[in-house]
Write a structure and sequence with these properties.
2 copies of one chain form a homodimer.
Chain A lengths: L6 H12 L8 E11 L4 E7 L9 E2 L1 E4 L6 H13 L5 E8 L10 E11 L13 E5 L10 H18 L11 E2 H12 L5 H11 L2 E8 L7 E6 L1 H11 L6
Parallel strand pairs in A: 1-6
Antiparallel strand pairs in A: 1-2, 1-4, 2-3, 2-7, 5-6, 8-10, 9-10
The structure holds a DNA duplex (30 and 30 nucleotides).
Chain lengths: 245, 245
DNA sequence: TTTACTAGTGTGTAAGATACACTTTAAAAT
DNA sequence: ATTTTAAAGTGTATCTTACACACTAGTAAA
């Protein structure tokens, strides 16, 4: 181990480490893992690349950070430009930096994941020929380290969905208990008991049960619910409440 | 919302988004939040900057990503160069990108946090005049967005320490139950019940109780323990065990 | 009127979390 | 030798939460 003995040497090292060096500039990419839910299954949005390198292969949507924006803004812009989507839940995931991850050029990629309700955004441009929804286990092999990005996003989504009410981002405003359960079963990739699930959700006390039924799925019809965001926020603030599935 | 109607327009957008543009290159910094524990309190290592901008102010240690390394390697290098420390637990935290976060130049910073046992690394160069350990609540105001980095690191550490055995990275190889409890009390910032804590730790069944006592703290002396990493790994693999405090 | 199909509902049991106070040990002081 | 001192070490009862489990209700279509 190196021992630093005095202030002068420390200064040298600081200078060496911190001097702004144009040589070391890199391109910063932003890649988006877009999760969608269609009331039945969790899906992921991919595009077929029509430019080199790796033209013709499937990949996440992505773009480059520009001088006049921060990463969150870049992620929003990329998503909007390629899909027409706006006002979407997005969260930074992880920064990938393997030296040759992009054979075209040294590129570091900051990944973001997004959550959207597939149905309400059906005609927002995502049905262009080069973009498609894939079931999670039927997604094709992707370019670069994009497979790893999805794996990491999936792990994050699982953890978050258990402790934050982000699942509702994947559902339409009004949804049935069955749809909510389907969502959690997709995210967690396991069957849940209907009664226990409903009991747990009700005990959280953050849903509003509407006087309205969804009659499309059964003869009896299923009551619709909405997530009460104000109530949730208030509970978090006032009682330190944590959403827990 | 913008609707994309055909493949040609989509291609234009793809080209526009993805063309490698030298103009948009940026400097990537790596900043390290170094947590240390001295058997009593959780601390953080800061240095006094002896170069511009913000010369004379306290900051996290940091450096810039070089062409021939990935981010993990850069973080290890920065930590080693400035403190002499090697073989340290580090984990990528978050990437900060506010446009004017560094007034000297547009810089994006990828933060890492590190965990070390203060005592065993006492003479590794960190006592140079410009570096100092601070109690968490006595740390001075830092440059740029470094305060925010610490806040985020603290939150991550709290979550991780509850579900992964990373706390042991902050302790010497041999430690007493009291020290382990002190550590968790520091991390979680609350008092824990001694009996419940010990019962819980013992039920995890991943410590080895040694036939050896630490006689420095009390008349009676306290048994020393070591974390059994092999046993832990085996349990995780074979039974899907999760460490849970 | 019957059939078919999904929605909707409650309780008992097991496991885990929490609250809580006295005894043991060995060194230091007398 | 005896007493004092200070932290280590230890167990149980109670409460809370997690989990397993099966029948009735309601509506549209046949």
């Amino acid at each position: 181990m190196k021992i630093i003995n005095n202030l002068e040497e420390a200064e040298d090292i600081n200078m060496q480490l911190n001097y702004y060096n144009k040589e070391d500039q890199v391109l910063l990419a932003v890649d988006c893992i877009i999760f969608g839910f269609d009331k039945e299954n969790l899906k992921i949005l991919l595009i077929k690349r029509n430019f080199e390198p790796e033209k013709g292969k499937w990949s996440l949507i992505g773009g480059f950070l520009k001088k006049n924006e921060n990463l969150d803004q870049a992620a929003v812009r990329v998503l909007h430009t390629l899909t027409g989507l706006g006002d979407i839940y997005m969260e930074q995931l992880y920064t990938f930096s393997k030296i040759d991850r992009d054979p075209g050029q040294r590129t570091i990629s900051v990944s973001y994941y997004a959550l959207i309700d597939v149905e309400s955004h059906k005609f927002d441009g995502i049905q262009i020929d080069s973009a498609r929804w894939f079931e999670l286990n039927e997604a094709p092999d992707l370019i670069f380290d994009h497979n790893e990005m999805i794996k990491r996003a999936m792990a994050r989504l699982r953890r978050r969905a258990l402790t934050k009410p982000i699942g509702f981002e994947l559902l339409p405003e009004k949804f049935t208990m069955r749809q909510l359960q389907n969502l959690y079963e997709s995210i967690l990739d396991k069957k849940l008991d209907k009664r226990n699930f409903i009991n747990k959700i009700n005990s959280l006390d953050v849903l509003i049960k509407l006087d309205e039924k969804d009659m499309t799925v059964s003869r009896k019809g299923a009551y619709l619910y909405v997530f009460d965001k104000e109530k949730y926020n208030k509970k978090v603030e006032e009682d330190g409440f944590t959403f827990k599935i």
